[in-house]
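Can't paste images in this forum, so I'm doing it all in text. The chain is below; anyone willing to post the predicted structure tokens underneath?
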Amino acid sequence: MPTAIAVTSSDLVLPPHDRQTPPAVVQPQETLESSLLGMHALLEQHGYVIALHPRAGTTPEERAVTQRLHAVRSMLESDRIALLGVDLPPLGTALLAQQLRQLSVCDFSPGVLASSVRLLAHYIYAGALLGSVAKLDRVPVTLKSHAKSWVPGAQFAVLTGPHPQLVRLGAAQEPLAGPEFGTRLLVAQGPQPPSDWVTATLAPAWQVQGVATVPLPEGSTRWWGTGKLVEFAAGLSDVSVLYQLVSSVRRDTCHWCGLELIGDRCGFCAAPLREPEPAPPVRALPRGTT
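Text version of the structure:
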């Protein structure tokens, strides 16, 4: 069985691209007992579990989710559970989970799959069109932008990564920076969408290879600080391209748990990659020796 990819809520599970993509698993959060039983069942069935959760933990809900997952891993005393915090907004997290699900059926080891999370997240362009940034605290917002958010009809395009950016629509500013590679755009509208700017303007400007409309995750309104939003996330969707991206990175072995990894940190035990020991100095031979 492929490595299980777990998320913290059902609205972070996007529809699969094909029949080969396995579903994501929603880690139960009702009680500690249900979480323990759910995680134990995943380990018995899949062997390894990669669980994504919000890294920021700025809200009580996010902190409770993170604490519950760490408590479960501690009580199970298992080194086969990777708890990976991500800084992406909800729709971006859902896209990341979908990419991991696609790669989980490839020939990557659990260690490589877990340590690829940071690499994959770097290639996800996640943001939102907002009717107000008055309560936005996830990206830097200037006092001037806060003041303008109270102007009736003001709209802001916000990008959280790879490089945070905030643009007021209609102002003489640079456009929202987009990817320089082919992506598929996911769009989720809130109950009060400001406009169709994402599909009518952003998608053509970014030259996306396709647009899919999905339900807005429950945590998006809280994450962005407003219900007047259209959340979007653009990323790689072709599993062959995702495979090439991950396989192109050099693999190492974690000195602590022995699993394979890419990058500078193990996804399961979080141990940093050990720096190679310097080669011993070359001793000069005495003259006359051969």
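DSSP finds nine helices and twelve strands in the chain. The mean pLDDT is 88.
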